[in-house]
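Please check our next protein.
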Amino acid sequence: MSSIKLILKKDKIDKSGEAPLYLRLIKDRKTKFISLSLKLNPNEWDEDKQKVKKNHSNSGRLNAYISQKVADAKGDVADLERKNKSTSARKLKEAIKGKPLTNFFEYSYNRCEKQKDTLALSTYNNYKNYIKKFETFVGHRELMFEDITVTTLKDYAGYCSTTLGNNNTTINFSLKILNLMFKEAQREDLVPLNHFPFSKFKVKKAKSTKRYLTAEQLDAFIKLEVSDKAKAQIIKDMFIFSIFAGGLRFGDVIELKWNNYNSKEQKVTKNIRKTSRQHSIRIGQKAIDILEKYKTSETKQDDIIFPFANIDKDYFIDRERRAKVVGQAIALSCMYLTRMGKSLELPFSLTFHISRHTFATRALNNGMRIEHVSKLMDHSDIGITQVYAKIISSELDNAVDKYIN
């Protein structure tokens, strides 16, 4: 025989002081819990009477709902036990729930592990960190996909904003990871298609601003004197090199080798880290001049061009080591570039990625066709490049307003 009882899991109390209510099913000394998608404050639950106390504003409605759930569960169990006296607790649970429910956190963490070798390490870590962030908000792992509602998303967005101080961009990314897990679970037919709370809740996106150096700011940056000690001069050269080498990303510049550069054709050719595509670009004279600074009589083709990070053989075969090296190098580059930006009194914080934006705006301002800029930047979609075209258009409008009106 089996038994059914209502259990308020007080060890799963969330941030608001509420605990989830479950149906506890015991069969052959094996216990299964079934979520009722209901949470109560412990002082609102009468364990002996198995009812919601009258101090809850909706006690009558909730008790009617709970009674019906218990009655339905007992009926499902009785029907299945009549058909099969040796049925298991798991089968009884599935009979009560209908289609088995999927635990959000179990599914999400498992999916991350399954895709660990196919995702970039930074992406894999981001997925896990943002799922953990949601778990911290929930307060426990006993959460089914069906338990996540529009209210859950609104409360989570509020928690990210007020408690964590996240901006809208970070909040949207936090929700994006949950959205992704939902869609993947639905593709596997684990979650009904009609349960998708993201279609009813959106966080307003913050207006993105592409920072870049104007011609005057770039000229000032090139002329800026920095110390030859440490690595300030190297990161400055790397920044300028990127601007005149198609806006190559930081991760590609620090690992650039001499065998990536064809001096006769004045081209750099390498597999881009972000896209894994081989990319070839003819570089400008300023970029060539910078390369010549780092070439010596002892230079070998397999040597790293810019001695900014500790890049060895393990860097290219151990992606965890590579992520650590790149992370440390980015932090160091930000420190130096921030100082340079302050010296130039720039109205924004200078980062290496601004070199990429600077290349794009300079190329478009100088008349390069947008599809060529897109190709040189290795964009997967020309729509990404059109953001820079809008910047140029906006600048033109401002010039008209300033000088003609």
User: Anything to note?
Assistant: The two ends are 87 Å apart (CA to CA).
